[in-house]
Design goal:
The chain has about 260 residues and is mostly helical. It has a two-stranded antiparallel sheet with strand order 1-2. Helix 4 packs parallel to helix 7 and helix 7 runs parallel beside helix 11. The protein starts with a helix and ends with a helix. About 10% of the residues have low confidence.
């Protein structure tokens, strides 16, 4: 926790961390906590808790908190669009040569996100959120190499598509423990952050590879429907408008 606060928003400390934390240090930390790329003891299914059970296992809570701190640390290394460390987290180069045990933290994080959303629930959604925050920070700036890598090897677009299509009916929320409006807003925030990652993928990048993956993977009809539904909800609930028309008709009637 002290290390996180020290690094946060301090570019000089981040640069020193880049010099101090070599690849083996990061590797040892993540492998020790079950977050290594090749063999991971972190099983999202293990935190698929009974949402009707009040006495949650404290070890599961600690495991989630520890994972969140690890990804928060990786996120802070990329603060300020620090391109050198963004690339270092994808591939570790020592004396001009790729290290024999180099770990692609970008790909690893994406795969962990894919695992986590399969079993996302009221207790574990914050972990998926933190992984997203790290991935967004790892590609903004932009970092072209990480954008391509996250799309092609990390399969992040497929995972985001899976997340968006998981929550359609009320029962989809309730079976994972999201009952109240506030609880459901947590899911909506996670989905909103995933869309932020999508447009960060194409930020400043003229390569058509990512666009091709988006066109192949995203369910645009579903996405369009969700946007329309949220827009109507905004007009009805927040602006207290009496809406009985289709969204396209409503837009034409609004005067700004």
């Amino acid at each position: 926790t002290t290390l996180l606060k020290l690094i946060e928003s301090n570019f000089k400390v981040i640069k020193k961390a880049m010099d101090y934390f070599n690849k083996k240090t990061l590797e040892m930390i993540l492998e020790e906590k079950g977050l290594g790329e090749e063999k991971s003891e972190f099983d999202p299914k293990a935190i698929e808790l009974d949402v009707n059970q009040n006495d949650k296992d404290i070890n599961e809570e600690e495991s989630i908190l520890l994972c969140k701190r690890m990804f928060r640390l990786l996120q802070l290394f990329c603060e300020g669009h620090f391109n050198e460390l963004q690339n270092h987290l994808r591939v570790q180069i020592v004396n001009g040569i790729q290290h024999g045990r180099s770990i692609n933290f970008i790909k690893m994080a994406s795969l962990k996100f894919g695992q986590s959303i399969r079993f996302v629930n009221i207790f574990s959604h914050s972990l998926s959120e933190q992984i997203l925050e790290f991935l967004i920070e790892s590609i903004q700036g932009p970092c072209f190499e990480n954008q391509i890598n996250l799309t092609k090897e990390g399969k992040i677009i497929d995972f985001i598509n899976d997340l968006m299509t998981q929550f359609v009916k009320d029962i989809d929320y309730e079976k994972r423990g999201f009952y109240s409006i506030e609880d459901k807003d947590e899911v909506h925030g996670l989905i909103a952050n995933s869309t932020k990652l999508i447009y960060s993928l194409i930020e400043g990048n003229l390569d058509d590879t990512i666009i091709s993956f988006l066109l192949k993977s995203l369910n645009f009809n579903f996405l369009s429907t969700k946007i329309k539904d949220k827009y109507i909800e905004l007009l009805k609930d927040d602006l207290k408008m009496n809406i009985n028309s289709e969204p396209e008709v409503v837009i034409k009637k609004i005067k700004f």
